[in-house]
Write a structure and sequence with these properties.
By secondary structure, the protein is of the alpha+beta class. The protein has seven helices and 13 strands.
């Protein structure tokens, strides 16, 4: 797709985000960057309202959308070792005195006003990029994170584009360049796309290559697809909103990584995506209809949503 030329002095009228279009276009899809959002203080995302949403989830058989973990102890912890707690509506009011990390998964499917925000955010992304990307978006979400003081969200990856918007209090977010293979290896990406959600390993010696974003209400940080990251909450209960969306192009890349695993079983060389357009087309097409690969990608999406919901 060809970018629509836009004067650098012109800033599009936006409903959710406030960002420099030039910075947005330069970094989108590749590098983390800071921006601002307009969701803090709008009354849609408060403890009282989230408590009511939690009650609705539990009453309507959607308890799986309310995910509660005890906090990780360090960035290098993994989700499989974190204790999962039974969700209750009261967990929201107990966050100040507990050690919990709560995710409202796909809350935009339950709350129509938040779904309107999701759609407005996508329109903002398209306006900032100056190109029609919405036709390539095949799914998306708004997730809400609530965390007790000093809670850690351990190091992990997400498949989608994600904007983490801080609503209440503050937190630190560390993000790494997903295109730097000294941070994230091809084998880690491949294992991730074949269903291992803990494939990306935190390495203390790589911490200095990460970029720290300290976010307060009104601040947002963009997470590129596959950008390794971990998060630590501040001294008070934090509320954040994750606005994420997936595209067909990202799913295509995932299928190429999945195909590589099978091709190596036949001693075939398997370059990463992006090095051979012809080979990329063959690999993504060859796996698009194979049940193993579809099942693997679905499992990766499902486990990721339950574990992280995108962001932190």
């Amino acid at each position: 797709m060809t970018l629509v030329e836009r004067s650098p002095a012109v800033r599009p009228s936006l409903g959710v985000f406030d960002a420099d279009p030039a910075v947005f276009r330069q970094n989108f899809g590749h590098m983390p960057f800071a921006l601002r959002h307009k969701l803090a203080g709008n009354g849609l995302i408060t403890i009282d309202r989230l408590t009511a949403v939690a009650e609705k989830m539990l009453a309507t058989g959607r308890a799986d959308r309310l995910v509660v973990f005890e906090s990780a102890r360090a960035a290098g912890d993994v989700y499989s070792r974190m204790k999962r707690k039974k969700p209750t509506a009261g967990v929201v009011s107990r966050l100040e005195s507990s050690n919990y990390w709560v995710t409202f998964v796909n809350i935009s499917q339950i709350d129509s006003e938040l779904n309107d925000i999701y759609r407005a955010a996508l329109r903002d992304v398209e306006a900032l990029l100056g190109m029609p990307i919405l036709k390539d978006v095949n799914r998306g979400h708004i997730n809400v994170f609530m965390a007790s003081p000093h809670v850690i969200t351990p190091y992990h990856l997400d498949h989608e584009h994600n904007f983490l918007c801080q609503i209440a209090n503050e937190k630190d977010v560390w993000l790494w360049n997903p295109d730097d293979r000294s941070n994230l290896s091809e084998s880690e990406i491949e294992r991730f796309y074949c269903g291992n959600m803990e494939a990306a390993q935190y390495r203390a010696e790589a911490q200095s290559r990460g970029r720290k974003f300290h976010i307060r209400p009104g601040d947002a940080v963009y997470h590129p697809p596959l950008a390794p990251h971990w998060v630590q909450n501040g001294p008070q209960v934090s509320i954040s909103v994750s606005i994420g969306f997936n595209t067909r192009a990202l799913d295509r890349r995932a299928r190429i990584y999945q195909a590589n695993k099978i091709l190596r079983r036949f001693a075939l060389k398997t370059p990463p995506p992006g090095q051979s357009p012809v080979l990329d087309c063959l690999r993504s097409g060859a796996t698009s209809g194979v049940k193993f690969f579809k099942k693997s990608l679905r499992r990766a999406r499902r486990v990721r949503a339950v574990m992280t919901g995108g962001g932190g």
